[in-house]
Amino acid sequence: MKRAFFIAATLLAFASCLHAQSSDTTLYTYDTLKSANGEQIFHAICQGCHMPDAKGAIGAGAYPALANNPKLASPQYMTAVVLFGRHDMPSFGTKPATHGNFFRDAMLTDEQVADVVNYVRTHFGNHYTNSITAAEVAAMHPQTTASTPTSH
Prior knowledge:
With 152 residues, the chain is an all-alpha fold. It has one domain (24-140): Cytochrome Bc1 Complex, Chain D, domain 2. 43% of the residues lie in helices and 3% in strands. The chain contains six helices and two strands. A hairpin with a 3-residue loop joins strand 1 and strand 2 (62-63). It is globular and about 35 Å long. The N and C termini lie far apart (86 Å).
């Protein structure tokens, strides 16, 4: 009897953990992510580390809270983090197709970067009223210049 109770309690606890992990059951693929808006991008990508409530987590790594975060007062700061990564966070800026990167299929357009930045900055206890545009995101990309070989 005790064993049956233990097994039932364990299964119930496991099921509760699975349900608590994510409230969004939508599965995003490379094709559907291409048309995702800021909220969908947060739920498809960001909440995996920063958690569904954006309060962050500490475990296998340290994932900072986005909720009530004063660093997000600058949309350019958050945009730079999304575009170029920071510490162990990967870059989600667009890259050439030839760039070998595990996260290549999760690269975001300038419009999507602006959408997710604006979404996070107006949700999770953040109430920033200024926003960033796709054109401003595009201006933050490093300008690539063709290098010309020097002759000796």
